[in-house]
Write a structure and sequence with these properties.
83% of the residues lie in helices and 0% in strands. With 65 residues, the chain is mainly alpha-helical. α1 runs antiparallel to α2 (32-62).
Length: 65
């Protein structure tokens, strides 16, 4: 259960930081900050999905299915 909460929190932080990087670097001429922001959002989304899958597996095991 603690792992799921940690994954969810880290995933949320990665998404927020990625979006913040994208917004703060809108005026730049290079694409590098947007690549970093996209990767952060992608990793954050993956971590959130992993946390959801783990939480569902834990919930199903607890009900006896």
């Amino acid at each position: 259960m603690l792992t799921t909460l940690t994954l969810r929190n880290v995933g949320t932080a990665a998404i927020v930081v990625g979006l913040l990087v994208a917004v703060l670097t809108l005026g730049t001429a290079t694409d590098r900050p947007f690549i970093l922001a996209g990767l952060l959002v992608l990793v954050g989304t993956g971590l959130r999905l992993e946390a959801a899958v783990r939480a569902r597996g834990t919930r199903l095991q607890g009900t006896g299915h």
